[in-house]
Design goal:
The complex is a heterodimer of chains A (365) and B (306). By secondary structure, chain A is an alpha/beta fold. Chain A contains 16 helices and eight strands. In chain A, strand 3, helix 4 and strand 4 form a beta-alpha-beta unit. The longest helix of chain A has 28 residues. Chain B is α/β, with parallel strands linked by helices and 306 residues long. Chain B folds into two domains: 150 residues, Rossmann fold; 135 residues, 3-Layer(aba) Sandwich (Rossmann fold). Helix content of chain B is 49%, strand content 14%. Chain B contains 13 helices and ten strands. In chain B, the strands form three sheets. Chain B has a four-stranded parallel β-sheet with strand order 2-1-3-5, with helices on one face. In chain B, strands 8-7-9-10 form a four-stranded parallel β-sheet, sandwiched between helices. The chains are: A alpha/beta (365), B alpha/beta (306). At the A-B interface, helix 4 and helix 15 of A face helix 4, helix 5 and helix 12 of B.
Chain lengths: 365, 306
Amino acid sequence: MKITFPHLGNVCFAAKALFNELGIECVVPPPNNKEALEIGTLYSPEEICLPFKIMIGNYIKSIEEGADTIIITGSCGPCRFGEYCELQMNILKKLNKKVDFIVMDVPSDIGIKEMFSRIGKISHSSSKSKKEKIKALYKALKIINMIDDIEADAHYIAGYEKNTGEAKRFLNKCKRDAINSKSADEMINILTEYKRKINSVEIDKQKKPLKIAIIGEIYTIIEPFSNFYIEDKLMDYGVSTKRTLSPSWWVKNTALSPLRINSLDIKKASKEYLPLCIGGHARECIGEAVIAKNEGFDGAIQIFPMGCMPEIVSKAILPTVSKDLNMPIMSLIVDEMTGEAGYLTRIEAFIDLLERRRKSVLFRS
Amino acid sequence: MKIGILASLLYYKYQSFINNFFYELGCEIISSGETNKRILDDGVKYCVDEACLPIKVFHGHVYSLRKKSDMIFIPRIMRLHKNEFICPKFCGLPEMIKNSIPDLPPMIQDTLYADSKDGLKNWAFSIGEKITNDKIKIENAFSISLKKQIESKKGIKDKNYKINVALAGHPYNIYDDFLNMNVVKKLNRLNVGVMTEEKLNEEYINRQVLKLYKKPFWTFARYTYGFTSYLAENKLVDGIVYISSFACGIDSVVIELIKDRIGSFPFLILKIDEHTGEAGFDTRIEAFADMLERRKAIEDNISASW
């Protein structure tokens, strides 16, 4: 069995470490790029959302490298993501690719028995003992938490650093080194090292950088290729950014959701505008905008793929949030046709607007 | 009390219940009437740009009633059947309206989980209590309107046509004659009979769905998929006409699933949005009708893809 999985931001680090530890061969698809998107657009239904198309590109590249089993998470919420597995199976079957799908649905929808049999498919092909398997899972969780932490720190520090670009350089180097590491322990060591490095970047506490929260649909904000590396660009402009949704947040949220104690702060913040979960991460989107204001952020950028049903609802609500809180919020919609130049212009204009709202325009060196 | 009822979205499916319920409660019902150009234009103006056509039209209906009624009925419908959803936009509909249209009268926006009779009843009572304190009156209104809803006959099944097609899609696309530009009449004029999903027993629909890897979690998806695939497999109709609004998330999935199942069976997808031109629409329907006629003429039914 040679396992592969679609990209979702930093998940590839944890997944690679997990399968290495379990002794299962795994193929990490090449980082998302134009080629993956082109392949995906060619084979996918026309009106499906962007994540689907990029994922198809990932699968086909991985299958070319010999992968024969695909792992994806599922959902039975009202969002389209839950139907991805079925459509993707059909597409790959039509292309004559012989692959197995392992869909990780929540047990409340498929039953606990089916859930265990699906996990069993993976764990049976590992020759390790039970104890080692649990250890591997623990290490993978640790890695995903560490890398998300490092990323969040780097994005925040970027506004304060004395030598422009230092945090970004460390972050990129950290990712490159981590993915090339041979074992989970080595990866954890590398991450610990870079965490220290990023936290010791020289900062200027007097600086008052612009702070922008990135909110919206989870895939398009986590996967940098799909949003034209917006966070990297904002780092270059010396803007501090914050993004609550991340793979580690998702793991925590999913684990706590049966007890209904997941993301209490977000639920509380969004109560006035959207009191119910309507699928996807629409409620989180609204809640984060409110929280960002409370934390003193200057603005928020919402990103979602064209046609995303839950985010359309939140886009309708955000203007009211923006008016009530006196905080600018911009919505960016991405699909395979988005042109980078127009997209950049909008980001730059938004930053200019935020700067001018402050009293002095000339604070940036 | 004047209650504004919107003749849009799921009203097309549950109009007997809604109308009778408020009538029995002693309300004056102000209906927004059939969709027209003005409603569409207002909807496009006020609704968020990315929404689909039915949602935009719904905004237009609300706008047309906002000065005429004391209360507007915009229920938040979460689910109609067990473990199924409708569409995220339905779940967030009251919020979308509230934040898009200014100067609205109070709204009845109770959340409905119609997967059990108790859920439905609680919902009806929480609405009734806003209008009257008389519990017996609410109880009566509820049972009468539920009975009328169950008795009401819906759906189209034409007889005496040589060629018949299945007309699939969401109910509010099929029955809103302004949005679909009278597609049923157009088909009939071309001597094509129409059948809709209400005329097929639900058991057949549910049996079709079992063949999928994952049971669809949208009510619309289950109905449309089961209906079209059953008719196609059993050759009960000559073709399928699917009316779909542009950028509909559910249709983008269901259409692919249907295509996958029925193979080369004649399948016409009519996309509608606020710009749809009627001439192009007519041409496509005529071409499809011609094709079905010729297929029928050739005895061995050679697939159109040859």
